[in-house]
Amino acid sequence: QVQLVESGGGLVQPGGSLRLSCAASGILLSINNIYWYRQAPGSERELVATITSGGSIIYEDSVKGRFTISRDNAKNTVYLQMNSLKPEDTAVYYCKAWNFRINMNYWGKGTLVTVSS
What we know:
The protein has 117 residues and is mostly beta strands. It is built from no helices and eleven strands. Strand 9 (91-99) and strand 10 (104-107) form a beta hairpin.
């Protein structure tokens, strides 16, 4: 059974930092494409960052230069380092693993990030 568990969310002041983790079981994150999404209240879920099985990384424009996605294969965990946080970054953050071999998506339950003074 595949499980993705996000952690690391919380309340942070504008300009602060958080590091989100996506820990997996039942699936090897290193050989699948991994995505961080976020969903703000009243908004659609949007893609924030991608790391492919080959190591390619893509960011949504609003987070470029502030967020960093990375992967620790030994821990089977993907991270999202978020710096210079803004109130508009407030959202529930989800990780998704896409097994492109069988075209199957797996989602975590999300972790809430609140950026407020």
